[in-house]
Amino acid sequence: MHRFTIHPFLRFLRATQLPLTLVAITAAAAFADAAETPWGRIEEAGASAGRQAFIVERWPADGRIVVPAGFPQIVRATMPVEGGRRELTVEYSEDASQVAILGPAAAPASGLIDVETADTTAQSDDGRIALTARTAKVEGSQAKLEEQPGNARIGYWSNPADSVGWTYQPTRWGAYDLRLAHSSASPPGTEIEVTIGETKLQGRLESTGSWYRYTTLPLGRVVIPSTQALAVTVRCTKPSGGAVMNLKAILLEPACEGGPPAQGNDGTVLLHGRDATVRGTALRWEPAEKKQTLGFWTKPSDAAEWIFQVHSPGRFEVEVLQGCGRGQGGSEMAILVDPSPAEAPQSLTFAVEDTGGFQEFRPRTIGRITLGKGEHLLRVQPRRITKAAACDIRQIRLLPVQDQP
Fold this sequence. Notes:
This protein is mainly β. The protein folds into three domains: 8-117, Immunoglobulin-like (Sandwich); 122-254, Sandwich (Jelly Rolls); 269-400, Jelly Rolls (Sandwich), CATH 2.60.120.260. The chain is built from two helices and 31 strands. The strands form seven sheets. The chain has an eight-stranded antiparallel β-sheet, with no helix packed on it. It has a five-stranded antiparallel β-sheet with strand order 1-2-8-4-5. Strands 11-14-19-16-17 form a five-stranded antiparallel β-sheet, with no helix packed on it. The longest helix has 8 residues, at 8-15. The two termini are 43 Å apart.
């Protein structure tokens, strides 16, 4: 029998042991830790509603991972591969009574499938936004909402002049990767345009093999400049075939605000706030020259993550450049580094110091970690926020310890 290991991402989410924001109990949560299936089990993938882990312990010979009846609408399914994630197709029967995720026929090294669900437009605690067909406004003569349990989509889009839109007010500004959840049995070549605020992103649709087979198409990165309400519109700019597509959702996932950090020639790793990926709904990168910081840290479920490369391994001192408003000190922060298949990640904690102002930064050396050669992930998140906000963090430096044992 093929032996699967749980992907480190899932272990990392479990190992954080940080306070979770209370979320509404969803139908998906009822499956987590309870649904035994012919192929394995379903578990919650951390604190965020709308995200589950399908742990496939017995890989089907045809690669079809059958979804339990009554499971919420799946808007995206991916599996880890070297260097990233592979997008998977979700297939429905004509009456949507049967749903399956289509994986590879050969059993992969990891039995984890990351499943994102959204029955209606919503934002998850980790900052992901799903604009779903059920709440869309259709402009035109043919396109309309089709609804089945677990499969709501804009269909009958035979007039390319029709458009689909939403008005959405984000909770935080910042960078997001935008994807289109859709199906198509039309010939390849339909061109579409998604307008989000002042930004326009273009894409070319390929056939998904059936109107009942859905996948996600990456369209690029967008920077949402403010927390004001903005219009999101999907339109066809060049049709190919008799219909544009079935549109299930527009997906926005928080993205790295700058670029991936790398270890310098002197051995130092600089993790600047602009190079973080925010996982949350309030925390954000503040680009104003006098700020240049991660701020609005008002929710204990919000976190910042850096993925970085190390070429000279060893022990490192962790230095945090932290600011905190007068009378706002005392919150407890946690830094976690690299989950392991066998043990919890390395972790450090520190109490936030009152520096007299959120942009009055003071360097703090909070402990040491050990890093091997290769890629690493560092995550910082509050354990406890005592006042209005935890702190601002401009950067974290990992300084090589000279007296290596």
